[in-house]
C-alpha cells in the first residue's frame, strides 16, 4: 500500500511539473505571438509574415492551452485539464505537419518535446483520480 502511494505521489509530482512547463511555454509563446509585431516575427520565422492570421490564431491557442493546463486545478475542475492537454496535442501535431510540409524539419524538435509533455499530461490526468 505504501509503495502504491509513493508511486502515485511521484506521478502527481511529475504531472504537475509537466503542466507547469507546458503552461510557462505556451503562455509565453502565446503572448509573444500576440504582442510582437508581425514584421519582427517574420524576421525570425518566415511563415509568420506569410500567414499573419495563422500566427495570431496559434498565439491565441497557445495562450488558451497554457492557461487550460493549470487553471482548472485551482477552480476545482481538474477534468478540464484533459481537454486542454488534448488541444495542445492537436496543436503540436498540426505544427509538426505544417513545418515538415514547408521543409522546416529543423524547427520541429521543440514541438516534439511539447507533444510528449502534453501526451503525458493527457494520459496521467485522464488516468488519475484526484
UniProtKB/TrEMBL annotation:
Keyword Transmembrane listed: yes
Keywords associated with the record: Membrane, Transmembrane, Transmembrane helix
GO cellular component: membrane
Keyword Transmembrane helix: yes
Topology in the lipid bilayer: Multi-pass membrane protein
Transmembrane portions of the chain: 12-34, 54-75, 80-100, 106-124
Classification via Pfam families: DoxX_2 (PF13564)
Localisation: Membrane
Name this polypeptide is given: DoxX family protein
Source organism: Spirosoma aureum
